[in-house]
Structure of Heat shock protein family protein:
Amino acid sequence: MTTVVLLLIVLQSVMSQNLYELLEINKEANEADVKRAFRKLSLKYHPDKNPGSEEAADKFKQINRAYEILTDKDKRQVYDQQGLEGLERLERGGDNRQKGPNAKAEVHVSLEDLYLGTTRDMSITRNVYCPKCRGTGAKDGKTKQCPKCKGQGITMQKVQVGFGMQMQMQVQCDQCGGRGQVNQANCGHCRGRKVVNDVKSLNIVIEKGMKDGDEIVFQKEAEQIPDMIPGDVIFTVKQSSHNRFKRVGDNLFYDLKISLEEALLGFSKRITHLDGHLVEVSSKSDEVIQPFSWKVITGEGMPKRNMYSEFGDLHVKMIIEFPKTLNEKQKQLIDQILQA
Ligand SMILES: [Zn+2]
Ligand SMILES: [Zn+2]
């Protein structure tokens, strides 16, 4: 009987152990701090260094667990705000937190940017969990039993249900929001708001071959709202129209102006591509170019996304510029030629 009671007490102490105190760090510790503390303590309590010591083995296990939680962004957030019980709920597969709203913005690029690929730095301003209290709003993260509901999270309320009839109903405690715990004192940094304003720079990678309307997603980088999974920051690619090329899928379209003489007698021209390289377009021998006919140059379109060595095609439309007027002599000569 006594062993059972003892075991329960030990379990209780493990459960309520503060992971930050366990690793001898404060709540503001970043990932590098956590790793450093873990390395130091895991050396100290390693079973190889403490043969036969059950206490050291137990401590070693706890340190490992604390390390696992505090170096996982999601787990740490849930632990900070909902404690170990909340975390165990999450680990049983029941993250009952709702996802917060996504933040959306456009990133404007040129066709050249999409041909070559580029990057953009964008800074976003949003609320994040207060680094001092880690989103609890409580000074030093310390809470106490809610005085209104005595830690129950619910209170009884009398409601009128009919003529002269009353009923008692359970309602969520409005002082602690059903948690049963309130702050001992408010965090001085965020004044108990749980969140503070923060600016973050995001590096947006525009991959070669991306298209207008493609999305670049930064998962869980949107506003951090207590008890919610942060939404995503989503950038939508917006391509400005190009003065020479038109894009459809992975193909490019180009209008090439040639003179009537070139259409009849042959031509060779060069088109300056999006990265400056030259693409030759020419007529075959004895070919007469028909108005609005196409020449397709394979492999000179846009790069295919995720397959940079493959390209779409370049479709060149022949725009023949006819002379505006002809004099009598020209007319006679053309007449002679065409009659022949
Ligand atoms: Zn309460
Ligand atoms: Zn705070």
